[in-house]
Amino acid sequence: MQLIKKIGATVLGLTMAGVSVIAPAMAANTTASYDLKNYPVPFVDDGNTNFLIVVGQEAQPSDIVGAVNVAVRLGAERVETKSVNTGGGQSISEGVDLSLPGDLIYLKDSFSKDTLTKTDMPTTLADGTFTDDNGVNYDYTQSVVLGTTAKFDYVKYNSDKDPELIVDLSNTSSTYPLYTLKVTFSKVVNMSDTASKAQTLDLFGTTYTVSSDTTSDTLVLFGSSNSVTLNEGETKTVTVGSNTYDVSVIGFDTNSDKVVLKVGTDTKSIAEGTSKKVGGLEIYAQTVTSWDNGNHGLVVLQLGSQKLTFQDNQAVQTGDDNTDIDGTQASISTSVDSLSTLQIKVYKPNSDDDFINEGTAFEDPVFGAFKISLAGVNP
Fold first, then answer.
1. What is the largest CA-CA distance in the chain?
2. Which terminus of the chain, N or C, has fewer Cβ atoms within 10 Å?
3. How far apart are CA 376 and CA 362, in angstroms?
4. How far apart are CA 54 and CA 39, in angstroms?
5. Which of 220, 199, 204, 223 is nearest to 317 (CA)?
6. Cβ–Cβ < 8 Å for 220, 213
7. From CA 124, how far away is CA 116, in angstroms rounded?
8. Which residues have C-beta within 8 Å of that of residue 334, sequence separation ≥ 6?
9. Distance from CA of residue 98 to its chain's centroid?
10. Cα–Cα distance, 373 to 120 (Å, whole number)
11. pTM of this prediction?
12. 89: closest CA among 357, 368, 361?
């Protein structure tokens, strides 16, 4: 994100009664030819001023005021262009400037942009299609609706530090969020129907599977970037994050569509469409298929899976223990079994470090798909 700081007076004309603006080089050589096509050169060039303002002996007070205005205006041009390191070790693949060419961001302003779409972030906010088990397609769009309460300011937040430029998040709340994540379907879809469960959809850069735990008022999704298929008796070594695990299929329970898994020394049974932590690894059993009285079969597993639970007007929850993600609130229209829109409001939940300065960022707490950062200043 780019912050634009207002540092000069409004644009004023350079020709006023009784006032002359002249570059010294021009004064020394009156035969030279100059124009204003390269303004502010020759008066100001790469941060260096090179001009005189002459006021006549019989100048009127308005001429003096005009001279001051011209000096202020040229002084505002005294800037240098430098490349800056934004710091923070951030890796940005789809950076979006939240100002607009005709609506720059000044001190005390909020974001100029109202909404981010696939035009701004083609991968993270790409259009998608959810297909149920009956082959029915449901197209959807994704967007980020920006709030209006986050303000750019120049303040002293730390008594041991100088004042600094920040994005102030202290006034954000569930009523006035920092932003709202929005998923809009072209037609209503019943996510609690058996035809929808175990089917996938891409949300904000990650593939999620509709859990069998989904009901008419609760939408449960499992997301993972690491999926494996294992046969009965097979073992695979997988890496999730910085850890390595040996995952083995011990057997199947044909009566309840369960698979018995072993990770390290830990063994547990997981039903299709549910998840458990086995040997320290979160595993979601996406598909469990067996035959020959459970002596043979295969299973599709999502490893290191992230469980997200959405209920209307409630905080988004994560994990098997359904821990609230502070600073979030879900909104479901009209219901899970007649879903047209899923919205998630996101805001700073407490007063601890409720700002963004250069080198820091606010990472989306639900999907982790993007960050809002103060990348620098363009005077």
1. 109
2. C
3. 15
4. 19
5. 220
6. yes
7. 10
8. 188, 340
9. 11
10. 16
11. 0.69
12. 361
Output the six-digit token pair for 125: 């906010």
Q: How far apart are CA 345 and CA 8, in angstroms?
A: 37
State the DSSP string of 292-346: TTTTEEEEEEEETPEEEEE-TTS--EETTTTEE-TTEEEEEEEETTEEEEEEEEE
Taking the CA atoms of residue 97, residue 103, residue 108 and residue 111 in that order, the dihedral angle to the nearest 10 degrees is: -40
Task: Please give the single-letter amino acid code of residue 247.
Answer: V
Q: How far apart are CA 229 and CA 232, in angstroms?
A: 10
Return the SS3 of 191.
Answer: coil
> What is d(CA 2, CA 96) in angstroms, rounded to the nearest whole number?
9
Name the residue ranges covered by the structural domains of the chain.
Answer: 6-75, 115-222+308-377, 225-304
pLDDT for the residue 256: 75
Whether the link from the prior residue into 122 is cis, omega within 30° of 0, is no
Query: Which parts of the chain have pLDDT scores under 50?
Result: 1-19, 21, 23, 26, 30-31, 79-92
Instruction: Supply the mean pLDDT for the chain.
Output: 82
